Each structure stands twice: as C-alpha cells, then as structure tokens.
User: What shape does this take?
Amino acid sequence: MDMISHPVSRTVGALCVALTLAMASGASRAAATSGSNDNGDEAARARHVSVVRILTGQFRVTEARAEHIVDAVERTAGKLRVPMSLILAIIQTESSFDPHATSSAGAIGLMQVMPATQRDTAPRTDIHDPDGNIYVGTSILRRYIDQAGGDMGAALNRYSGGTHGYARRVLARWHYFSDFADPGTPAPAHAATLVLRVTTAEPAAALAGPAIIRAASQSETSD
Assistant: This one.
C-alpha cells in the first residue's frame, strides 16, 4: 500500500534535481569552531529524531528497529555520497522498512538486494543484516547511477529490474523524506526541471568520481 499521498504528475519527463552534496574533508572539519560543530551535531540529531518518528509513527516500525535503520542509512549516505532521503525512499518502496522482506524472485531485506548482484558488489557483506543490506543496496544504486552517466531514471529502472512506475513512486517518496532527512536540500518535485549534482569529495574506490543525476529523462506513465 502506498503510504505517501504526495501528488505527482502522471508523467515524469526530463526530471532533474538541483542539489550539491559536498562532504567536508577531515582537515576542514578539524578547523571548524566548536560552536559550529555543536550546531551541526544538534541539527544532525534533530534530523535523526525526525526520521525515527516518521518510521515509528507512519510505518509502525519499532523504535529500536527505526533507530537501527536510521543509523545505518546515515552512515551509508555519508560514505557513498547518496542523499539519505533517496535511500529511505527506496527502502520504503522495496520493503516498507521490513528487514525480513523477501520476494518471489529471491530479493532480500530492506533494499531487496538480489544475492547474485550482491556477490558482484560486496561478496563478504551479509545482506540479511540491515546494515549490510543498506550498504550493498546503496552501493548497487550508486554504481548504476555512475554507469548511466547520472541518468536517475535509467538507474532506478535498472535497480528495479524494469518495474513499471517504479521511478515515479521513488520520486514521490524521495520528495516526502527530503523534508525530514535532508532539510534545506531540494528534492525532485513533479512538473519541475532541476539538476542534481552529487559531488564525491572522498569517494569509495569502486564509486569514484562525481555523478550528475538526471531524474527520469524519459516520460513514464503512472500505473
């Protein structure tokens, strides 16, 4: 069941998002003032609490499980330079935040990772564990984005195995979660044409290089 009622247009065409995610280096963090660090810590904590409340209140996730999921998403978002709100949107679409979810095709966990794809991405990571599942799922998505030259529509279509309407559903949920998980950061909106730039200041070796993410470059009709 679709838990989010945010309106989206019936077609998603040439959708892009304006966003720059640049992570500060360790040196710049060390040079920051203690007051700035305190403010940043408070903002991060407020964001964390807001997302946990969304998961427990709207998706009936236990508080302990919600804390675990949000912690894992925060770590993965920072490491792989993927918006936290996008990861949450995919988790909701794939499993409704159920870490034990499985599909008839054999997909596993929160991000419905296929074991064969996992073996090609992080063979030693346990995708039955929520932390490992989120990391591997996001790594796969990030690789698809980079290989598609930043075309988010193509990347999401590949991630879902070609499921009709998938990009549209993720788009709506990404927009919703951005208000809580990435406040102040523009997320894709229906009937908008923006540009999303994800800058990898400290990229993982397998995901090196900046990605220009263009959401749904082709029209997609809703289900």
User: Anything to note?
Assistant: The CA atoms of residues 48 and 70 lie 7 Å apart. The domain at 19-24+42-213 is CATH 1.10.530.10 (Lysozyme). The helical segments are 26-31, 34-58, 63-80, 84-95, 115-121, 130-147, 152-159, 166-181. The radius of gyration is 17 Å.
